[in-house]
Amino acid sequence: MGDDKKTIFSGMQPSGFITLGNYLGALKNWTLLQDEYNCLYCIVDLHAITVRQDPAALRKQSRDLLMQYIAAGLDPEKNIIYYQSHVSGHAELGWILNCFTYMGELSRMTQFKEKSQKHAENINAGLFTYPVLMAADILLYQTDLVPVGDDQRQHLEMARDIAIRFNNIYGDVFKVPEAYIGKAGARIMALQDPEKKMSKSDENKNNTILLLDEPNVIMNKIKRSVTDSGNEIVYRDDKPGIKNLMNIYSAVTGKTNDAISEEFANSGYGDFKVAVGEAVVAELEPLQQKFKELSKDKKYIDQIIKDNTAKANYLASKTLSKVQKKVGFPPKVR
Ligand code: TRP
């Protein structure tokens, strides 16, 4: 990365299978950045184990996520696509940054409060220091920009605070990252409950469309999605279900809300749902095809993992050695 392109870092947890929401809200937009920026897209398996995971499932979801990154159009030659657990610098820097983060600030994080309510039987220390590891992810690569959704803004803010705090003590060690404000990713809501975000950890399978769902499954889930009792296809806050379907349709086809209203001026919800279903199926078809091909090519995927891990490790160790030196660890003897 010895050029003057800016560095972008982002990641997704391999907890469950990714949804249309993850795709339209993040992944699809990531593919637009690969020429202009140096991008790292991590599969954050260290973060995933802050809630209990089944080992075999975690392994499969991690590999599937990596292949879905590529199938969605992230070129593994241009972007560094890798597993967090393969680059030990994340955990090492995470530890150091733990010593520069206060209990008070961690206990104010909204996501910690939410998750400790949801997983009351397992409020582990990792869940508490989750934002510190995320700061380490970002700071390890001297990241300029982080594309994040609203729910991750507070985490990015903390990464910035930690970087500034550390730099104030030791000099300019970390670049202070900023949020990437690009073409806004669509915020896709749960199909049965359009007031809450579509989430891959949702227990109600009818709330989510998975990237790898079969066409008939996609169609059925959209047909069954919750709408209001009216029949107009208009973009209004009191019609969250229709609004959500319009957001999906718009993200997939590029049409504006007005154009969509006009297109369906003489149709009811049923026709509109079929159109949305067909558009989503058409959008995901090439991705699913590519995924199938990649799944058969173990050697190719393994090589990508090997090459990209090496690239990430190289960059990570540059920052890590600097940090280790600054805090006063003895130099390594070779
Ligand atoms: N916490 C993020 C999420 O759940 C995932 C994540 C981990 C991440 N490390 C990151 C995102 C660094 C951006 C940058 O969505």
Q: How does this model look, in words?
A:
This protein is mostly helical. It folds into two domains: 205 residues, 3-Layer(aba) Sandwich (Rossmann fold), CATH 3.40.50.620; 88 residues, Tyrosyl-Transfer RNA Synthetase (Orthogonal Bundle). Helix content is 53%, strand content 6%. The protein is built from 14 helices and five strands. The strands form two sheets. A three-stranded parallel sheet has the order 1-2-3. Helix 4 packs across helix 8 and helix 8 crosses helix 9. The relative contact order is 0.14. The site of tryptophan (TRP) has 13 residues, from strand 1 and helix 8.
Number of strands: 5
Task: Please state the overall shape, judged from the principal axes of the Cα atoms.
Answer: globular
Low-confidence stretches: none
What's the architecture of the largest domain, going by CATH? 3-Layer(aba) Sandwich
Proportion of beta-strand residues: 5-15%
User: Which secondary-structure class do the elements indicate?
Assistant: mainly alpha
Oligomer: single chain
Over the alpha carbons, how many angstroms does the gyration radius reach? 21 Å
- What ions, cofactors and ligands are bound? tryptophan
Please state how the strands of the largest beta sheet are arranged side by side. 1-2-3
Look up the CATH topology of the largest domain. Answer: Rossmann fold
How far is the N terminus from the C terminus? 26 Å
Overall tally of domains: 2
**Mean pLDDT across every amino acid position:** 96
How many distinct helices?
14
Sketch the major β-sheet: 3 strands, parallel
The amount of helix comes to 40-55%
